[in-house]
Amino acid sequence: MTDVSIVIPMKNEVGNAPDLINALVAECHDVRIEIIAIDDASTDGTDQALRDLQATVPTLRVLQNTKSGGQSAAVHSGVLAAKAAIVCTLDGDGQNPASQVPKLYRPLLADETGLLALVAGQRVDRQDTQSKKLASKLANGLRGWLLNDGTRDTGCGLKGFRRDVFLQMPYFDHMHRYLPALFKRDGWQIELVDVTHRERGSGNSNYSNLNRALVGVYDLIGVAWLIKRRKKAYPKELD
To answer: pTM to 2 decimals?
Structure first.
């Protein structure tokens, strides 16, 4: 039986994959985990590095896209494949420390109300370039004003959630950036936790500030539309 599935999207992270996955095994020792790494059509040997790791990490499963589908597609595929009712996600670039993952699953496993469905990380002391931090601050401010999702850092890859609730949501590219708004839309409780952040270990970011800005405006309009068109009534079966 698996308590927690940890889903990691990876694209060209051959230099970060071994340390990150071994750290997850060490840090998440209090629960039975599986690690699902999704290789998003990497060209640097990430797929072989993950296969090699399976020899020493028996809980590691590897999925591979034949063509790149992006982070949200990789996360969605990983959640579909997950065996546990609780799923945690983190970025594959090593900037999300493995030590922070227990902060995500422990509140969900301890919840007795059945209402808590998402625990979202919020980065403190971000180790990014000033231009990246400024672009993120502006985007988060606009998003928070329009969606009223209650979080200052929805772009953080560290998130834990109930698998069944996540899979009920409509899929769209970049949805991973809007999970607090989408969970709140459907009436679920969310919890925000501060998490640490560190510099990328190796490789280069797969996103540019311009790319984030262009897709962000389009996505914001779409998510705002989804919130306004949410289902507003749920029946109870009468005895």
So the answer is: 0.85
Angle (CA) 18-46-16 rounded to 5° is: 35
Classify the phi-psi angles of 29: left when phi > 0, otherwise alpha if psi is within -120 to 50, otherwise beta. alpha
The answer on pLDDT for 116 being more than 50 is yes
Query: Is-contact 120 100, C-beta < 8 A?
Result: no
What is the residue-wise DSSP string for 22-41? HHHHHHTTTS-EEEEEEEES
Tokens of 153: 């850092």
Burial (CB < 10 A; 0-12, 13-18, 19+), residue 141, is exposed
Architecture of domain 4-228: Alpha-Beta Complex (3.90)
pLDDT at position 203 over 60: no
Quote the CA–CA distance of 62 and 37 in Å, as a whole number. 5
Question: Where residue 209 falls among pLDDT bands split at 50, 70, 90?
Answer: very low
Burial level of 179, CB count in 10 A (0-12/13-18/19+)?
Answer: buried
1 Cβ contact list (under 8 Å, min separation 6): 32
Q: In whole angstroms, what is the distance from residue 144 CA to residue 137 CA?
A: 10
Q: Residue 164: which residues within 8 A CB-CB, separation 6 or more? A: 85
